[in-house]
Amino acid sequence: RLWFLDRLEGPSATYNMGGGFWFEGELNVAAVRRSLSTILDRHEALRTRFIEVEGEPRQLVESDYQFEVPLLDFSQQPDSKQEQQVADHTQAFISRPFDLSCDLMLRAELIKVSESRFGFLFNMHHIASDGWSIGIFVREFVEGYLAFSQDRALELEPLTIQYGDFANWQRKWLEGERLENQIDYWKDQLKSLPALLELPTDHPRPAIQSYAGSSTKIKIPEELMGQLKALCREHDATLFMSGLALFQLLMSKYSRMDDIAVGSPIANRVRPELEALIGFFVNTLTLRG
After folding, report:
1. What is the residue-wise DSSP string for the chain?
2. Residues 6 and 128 sit within 8 Å (Cβ to Cβ)
3. Please, are residues 111 and 89 in contact by the beta-carbon 8 Å criterion?
4. Going by C-beta distance under 8 Å and a sequence separation of 6 or more, which residues neighbour residue 87?
5. Hey, which residues does 140 pair with through a beta bridge?
6. At what angle are helices 29-42 and 131-149 packed, to 10 degrees?
7. Bridge partner list, 193
8. Sign of torsion, CA 34 37 41 45?
9. Contact indicator for 181, 188 with CB cutoff of 8 Å
């Protein structure tokens, strides 16, 4: 579906999954590059290209590839300019679209701001990764860097399958009667669902989605959290279930609608072999209240 969206909307940064962190002290650049190469060797999803053959997507796993990790030096810039330049470069790095037909699905850069402080930036396309995968990537990168910078052998559990094995299994599993049953189930679940949540927003919904959104964080007081947990125990529910119910009630109040559907991502790693694998496993479920 991400390949389809890329073809429909054109290349964009909408499904880029970027991040980074700081190194304090002396940096072993060779260990950084070796650790990243090890991750690429271990996880085929990050070196898979998606080409089009007669209108259909085809996956090509690269075995002979080059992976560059540039080192950019901002250390000579005056302090008054350095922070903004680093921020601007980071935004440009995160926002650069991937070409699914020819790029590797992982990029990385190093930024030097002083002799003892370095930034590490990475970016993966969502077609080859998900939120769970970022945890795997960071853990394996750190373990690899520590091992290679100390001239130790890297000891990671061998992967028993690759993402292509999962995709092949899923394609074979989801066909025939089982596929028809799944489709019938969701048709029934989503029957007569309102097309939109009619919130009284301060401006009209645009014809083309811009993804120019934002986020906000709130901190629930400890006493209230205790009351929520007690409510959950009383009704044999989880915090997710109670939070979802509260959110749907709030949306109902503002929209004056009594049929509220919420999309929620799930990890979808239903077998233990998938827990250590970088790949796009996440699925979005429609939860209707």
Report:
1. -HHHHHHHH-S-STTEEEEEEEEES---HHHHHHHHHHHHHH-GGGGEEEEEETTEEEEEE-SS------EEE-TTS-HHHHHHHHHHHHHHHHHPPP-TTTS-SEEEEEEEEETTEEEEEEEEEGGG--HHHHHHHHHHHHHHHHHHHTT-----PPPS--HHHHHHHHHHHSSHHHHHHHHHHHHHHTTT--SS-----SSPPPSS-------------HHHHHHHHHHHHHTT--HHHHHHHHHHHHHHHHHT-S--EEEEEE----SGGGTT--S---EEEEEE-
2. no
3. yes
4. none
5. none
6. 130
7. none
8. positive
9. no
Strand partners, 22: 119
CA-closest candidate to residue 46, choices 119, 154, 122: 122
Distance of alpha carbon 140 from alpha carbon 134, whole angstroms = 10
Which structure tokens are listed for 105? 């699905």
Which residue type is seen at 169? Answer: W
pLDDT digits (tens, 9 = 90+) for 98-126: 999 999 999 999 999 999 999 999 999 99
CA contacts within 13 A on the Cβ side of 95: 8
Tokens of 17: 């999954």
Which residue type sits at 121? L
Residue-wise pLDDT tens digits, 218-257: 999 999 999 999 999 999 999 999 999 999 999 999 999 9
- Rounding to the nearest 10 degrees, give the CA dihedral for residues 197, 198, 201, 206: 70
Helices 222-234 and 239-255, interaxial angle, to 10°? 100
